[in-house]
Design goal:
CATH architecture of the largest domain: 3-Layer(aba) Sandwich
InterPro entries: Epimerase_deHydtase, NAD(P)-bd_dom_sf, UDP_G4E
EC number: 5.1.3.2
Pfam family, one: Epimerase
Cofactor: NAD(+)
Shape: globular
Structural class: alpha/beta
Bound molecules: uridine-5'-diphosphate-4-deoxy-4-fluoro-alpha-D-galactose
GO biological process, one term: galactose catabolic process via UDP-galactose, Leloir pathway
CATH topology of the largest domain: Rossmann fold
CATH superfamily of the largest domain: NAD(P)-binding Rossmann-like Domain
CATH class of the largest domain: Alpha Beta
Number of helices: 10
Helix content: 25-40%
Strand content: 15-25%
Order of helices and strands: EHEEHEHHEHEEHEEEHEEHEEHH
Length: 325
């Protein structure tokens, strides 16, 4: 059985679907602070928190868990700058509870949701895994701290891990059973789609004076189902008792203005914008090299076209806003 912590959230729920379709049994733990119970359509669900060490021990004793996947974290860069304590408690301290409960119960395979935010403002792109890690936000630092802890645990104990550094997760389940649903929403694509659907008046463009061709930030968008596939492939790698770190991106960068333009094409809506100040903690360009994942995991993104990614997001966004899920 695969234990998916944070499996009611955006990425965790897509991984749960993917693994369930592959025939894995899954157990989801989520405190529902950000996740949605409606997203746990596969596997078993326990509502609970990583703060609860007794619950973790009980789960590991009761269920035949072979691997833990850990998605439960706070992920808002701007919020992490204002309230670092919450980020270190939620993302670092709670993960230690999870690792220690695994240790106690001899469970030794771990897949960690890391982020391109560990690189900070990169000195060159595309970013490879050996690029220096100098995060510029408490969020990025909290993720890097866990990566270091994982490295130490794998050196000291019978423990293997795969850390997956996601670039910008985007898109939704092509069958529109689940998708992106954050409250409040802070991510670019769903915010643009909110404007397209008439829920917001305009999109704020955070910074138009970055050192990029049109002055807006460039990101590497990767489809959430391609991320799910990488987790499935990482499971296979752990079966060989190996520990690795991988970037997961498309290797292509799109500026904020280009994303807005593609959303206009996909939705057929005008989508008004206003230019605003830079948002703190945003590096100008993040583009990843995923050569290592392609070589070792034999992973190949299926949704490499940004239009296809946005189309799946748009399908889901319309469903989310027109129906009660
Ligand atoms: N942006 C806008 N207007 C908005 C929202 C976002 O201009 O209303 C811009 C941001 O400034 C950024 C780009 O759009 O330049 C993408 O922003 P997102 O919030 O969608 O994504 P981020 O790149 O900030 O964040 C993502 C993940 C984080 C991760 C980070 C790495 O959500 O978990 O990448 O920097 F840490």
């Amino acid at each position: 059985m695969i234990f998916i912590v944070g499996g009611a959230g955006y990425i965790g729920s897509h991984v749960n679907k993917f693994l369930s379709k592959k025939g894995y049994k899954t157990l989801i733990l989520d405190n529902l602070s950000k996740g949605h119970e409606e997203f746990v359509k596969w596997g078993e669900f326990i509502k609970g928190d990583l703060k609860d060490k007794r619950l973790l021990d009980k789960i590991f004793k009761e269920y035949n868990i072979t691997t833990v996947m850990h998605f439960a974290a706070l992920t808002d860069v701007r919020e992490s700058i204002k309230d670092p304590g919450s980020y270190y408690r939620n993302n670092v301290k709670n993960t230690l509870n999870l690792l220690d409960a695994m240790q106690k119960n001899n469970i030794n395979r771990f897949i960690f949701s890391s982020t391109c935010a560990v690189y900070g403002d990169p000195i060159e792109t595309p970013i490879t895994e050996d690029h220096p890690c100098n995060p510029i936000s408490p969020y990025g630092r909290s993720k890097l701290m866990i990566e270091k802890i994982l490295e130490d645990y794998s050196n000291a104990y019978d423990f293997n891990y795969v850390s997956l550094r996601y670039f910008n997760a985007a898109g939704a389940d092509p069958q529109t059973e689940i998708g992106e649903w954050h409250e409040p929403e802070t991510h670019l694509i769903p915010i643009i789609l909110d404007v397209a659907i008439g829920k917001r008046e305009n999109v704020q463009i955070f910074g138009t004076d970055y050192p990029t061709p049109n002055g807006t930030c460039i990101r590497d968008y990767i489809h959430v189902m391609d991320l799910a596939d990488a987790h499935y492939k990482a499971l296979k790698l752990l079966e060989e008792d190996k520990s690795e770190i991988f970037n997961l991106g498309n290797g292509d960068g799109f500026s904020v203005k280009e994303i807005i333009e593609t959303c206009r094409e996909v939705t057929g809506e005008e989508i008004p914008t206003i230019e605003s100040d830079r948002r703190p903690g945003d590096p100008p360009i993040l583009i990843g090299s995923s050569k290592k994942a392609k070589r070792i995991l034999r992973w190949e993104p299926e949704f490499s076209d940004i239009k296809d990614i946005i189309e799946t997001a748009w399908e889901w966004h319309q469903k989310l806003n027109n129906e009660i899920i």
